[in-house]
User: Fold this.
Amino acid sequence: MLKVVNINTYYGRIQVLKNISLNVEKGEIVTIIGANGAGKSTLLSTIAGTNKPKSGQIYLSTTQTSCLSVEKIVRAGISLVPEHRQVFDSLSVLDNLRLGAYHRYGNDKKTIEDDIENIMSLFPSLKGRENQIAGTLSGGEQQMLAIGRGLMANPKVLLLDEPSVGLAPLVVKEIFDILLTLKKRGTTILVVEQNAKAALQVADRAYILERGVISFSGKAKDMLKDTRVQSAYLGAKLHA
Amino acid sequence: MSLANDILQYVLGGLTMGGIYALVAVGFVIIHNVTGIINFAQGEFVMMGAMFMVTLTGIGLPAPAAIILSVILVMVVVGLIEVGAIRSAKRASPVSLVIITIGISTVLRGMALLIWGTNPYKVAPFTEGGPIHIGGASIVPQVLWVIGTTAFVLALTFFLFEYTYFGKALRACVVNKYAAQLMGISPGKMSFFAFIFSAALSALAGIVFAPITFATYDMGLMLGLKGFVAAVLGGLSSTPGAVFGGLALGVIESLGAGFVSSGYKDGIAFVILLLVLFLKPGGLFGTSGSKRV
Ligand SMILES: Nc1ncnc2c1ncn2[C@@H]1O[C@H](COP(=O)(O)OP(=O)(O)O)[C@@H](O)[C@H]1O
Ligand SMILES: [Mg+2]
Assistant:
């Protein structure tokens, strides 16, 4: 479904992503684990098109997206839920969700209101808050809104950048449970995390990103047992 | 003439000018909010509106047609400028873009000088008739056009931003450009829209103002600066603030000119600008950080 081939991304002269290749199959949850500064956000923004790779290709099914503009990539079916949620904080919950459907607003105005209903049933904590200003929601609710807004684009692949950051363990669990529900409904998900434990528990497969290089990849289940992963990413979390 | 009548007369005059300043100031705010640019060519958009009006009524077009055509012409010119000069320099820093707008204003003023010369022009008022008396004050009917247009346009702007999907998308771009882009909202398209919408506001200001002043090729200089002062007074990123700033500036100027000396009229705006920048750099309402369209 999503295929990244030999991506190299730079900020000016500094190379942040080095020969990254990965793939996400239809209906999978794939996670990328990495420490702060490893290049996780850069990788997602390169896939979403806000950063352009210097070389390499990105394919969504058979479409090469790496040469498209961000707007066209959204229309092609890639939706990024950005780091730190970034909801439109002076707009209402409802407006945030409607704007998520911006690229298809002209065509399916009818189905959009039904889709909002669906999102609302997925996130019960947003129910009854349709007209609340997004900036006044709690961190967890904002994260749910951000995911809901991302889903409103009807993406073929949903990208999530550290959805657990700054949230209480219970809320983190709630959010990852929602990812599992989405998977059951057929959504394809690529989620980037520092919280390796939470991510590996829901993911099918995982990649480890270290200073811009994928050092390791495999089944999420195996990763949870792998001693190298445990000492580098799980041990630290357990003692934290 | 009693003091009360004088005050009423000055306030009415001040509100008229204030309406013009408010339109220009709202234009500043819309462009600033959407693109981060302070557009110092805003005054020239006003001048173009007035000058096209001069030419079009001069060749015998009826006022309504001339108004619409003038607005469209200004929007076309500004649209070309946005694509040609602003968008092609998108990688430039905001400061460079501001300097580019100063360049644009100089070019527009120069071209106006070539086309219309240095003569002041007079445009006929939209409706005939003598002064209207309100209490002890009297105003020319054109003043009602100015105030009515200002009110109508501001209401339209409010409606656009609060109640339409496109307006919401524009606000999304203002509150979080990065997230807006991720929704497929094109900042380039929004910037283009901000420029032509703001051009239409300024053109209208010039058009309704033309019959109560003399239109000259360099009228944009002072109007642009006054509009900027009004926008700063309102905090530079708030539309209601800009409207308030415009009306307040108009009234203060008018009272100052009436009771102190008309020689100080233009100076007052700059004293206010300096005071605001020194004492309340976030504008009178001091909403630092939170942008509003
Ligand atoms: N806009 C930027 N300009 C320059 N360097 C950046 C920029 N964004 C991130 N970086 C650098 O790129 C590296 C990877 O950052 P990032 O992708 O944000 O990592 P992560 O999301 O894994 O924490 C870091 O060293 C960071 O300092
Ligand atoms: Mg990051």
